[in-house]
Amino acid sequence: MKRILVLSVLWAMLTSVAAQDNNVHEQSSTYEWPSDELVVSRLKQWKDLKFGVLIHWGLYSAAGIVESWSICDENWITRDTTRTYQQYLDWYWGLAEEFCPTRFDASQWAQACRDGGMKYMIFTTKHHDGFCMYDSHETNFTIARHAFRDDPRRDVLRYVLDAFREQQFVIGTYFSKPDWHSQDYWWDTYGKKGRNVNYPIDQHRQRWERFKQFTHNQINEITSCYGRVDILWLDGGWVNKDNRGQDIDMPKLAAIARKNQPGILVVDRTCHGPYENYQTPERTVPERQLDYPWESCIPLTDDWGWTPNAHYKSAAQVIGTLIEIVAKGGNLVLGVGPTPDGLLNPEVVNRLQEIGQWLKLNGKAIYNTTTTPYYNEGDIWFTQSKDNARHYAIYRLPEGEQLPETISWTTHLPQKSIRLVVNGKRVKYRVEGDKVIVWLPKQAAQQSLAFEIE
To answer: What residues in the chain have per-residue pLDDT under 50?
Structure first.
């Protein structure tokens, strides 16, 4: 394990930057509203949550390297050059016999995320490498059948979802449509192993049908065996009928999920249509407001999973991003990765506590709000209550700067008062024509401030 960690420091540096530049999934260009009224109702509830967590934890965590991508045989991938590709692949698969998170504590994760002000969660049941973080009966390549097999918590997914339900989270499961460990997706008969199926489907139809059934069976497992699930978050958008005939039969897949979990949100990301119930721009925020459901997925570090010596975004940076996203009509799901031992490290916990403290005091301007047509003026972002009775102005303090003496904006002018959301106290202001000037309290903390406009 010591040798793995030493090597992983180098490999994480080599692979993570490349993965960021070459593997950010593009946002769909169109949106189709679902026809199922229960799904529409669940979407409206989900939009009120505003802030969630996306937890990447898998085989890659054992070595602290970028999730799955280092085994993809594409020319932009950088990996250990002292080994052949096959040697590297064999080493990677062998991590299953070393990934033994003896300190695994899903309750610690759930509490930290609750303290962070998060309202929903998404957990990786299986990433592209095919390693299942639950006790799948469709494959032996699971955490429950390898190094962690003798631990009573080996069916990890059950413990994770139960811990987050106990903290009143809306529950989501991430699932990768491609499975690079499956011989029915990456077949060793064919050498090249890029992100796509590596054999001609039209010549081996039976093999592809077998993979399709395998995928449907696993979807049935994670939506029928683990209690309530609210979101099925499907990754690997290149698996679609228009790309090399990789038709996974989404109507049937969604029907299986919704038979087990009526009204479940199905997020077939980047594949626009009836099964992409909300869009998922990755590592970015749309330039303008969008009038349909969307969620920016952004990691807390430069990678989705745990890597050693990671660079963490500041709490102020995350809060500022959340403010902008909510004003533009979206949700933020923040990516975090537990350690190989099974804990969120102190840096993650501390960041979440700082974010949660701000939301505890200012969340009235974030949660359960809706957009207003005039939503931004410089560093000030606007939201409103869903009944349109209250408007909020949120001053996003640029990181590293001090609060100014005054701020000003046009439109959303007060009729009665302007109050600090944090304590309900009125603040001094003056209206000059179409502009309001607001004096900031001298004792205010040096952070973003939310105001309620009456």
So the answer is: 1-20
Give the model's pLDDT for residue 2. Answer: 42
What is the per-residue pLDDT for 258?
Answer: 98
**CB within 8 Å of 225: residues ≥ 6 apart:** none
Nearest to 15 by CA among 308, 341, 336, 340: 308
Sheet holding 435-439, edge to edge: 406-410, 435-439, 429-432
Nearest alpha carbon to residue 11 among 84, 70, 72, 73: 70
Quick check: 282 and 24 in contact, CB under 8 A? yes
Tokens of 32: 């189709």
**How many residues are listed for the chain in this entry?**
454
How many Cβ atoms from other residues are within 10 Å of residue 83's Cβ? 12
170-184: burial string, b at 16+ Cβ within 10 Å, e else: bbbbbbbbbbbbbeb
**Which residue carries 């962690």 as its tokens?**
148
445: tokens are: 């903390």
Res 23: pLDDT: 65
What local confidence, expressed as pLDDT, does residue 81 receive? Answer: 84
84-140 pLDDT, tens per residue? 999 999 999 999 999 999 999 999 999 999 999 999 999 999 999 999 999 999 999
Would you state the structure tokens that stand for residue 282, as one six-digit string? Answer: 């990755």
Residue 21 is predicted with a pLDDT of 52
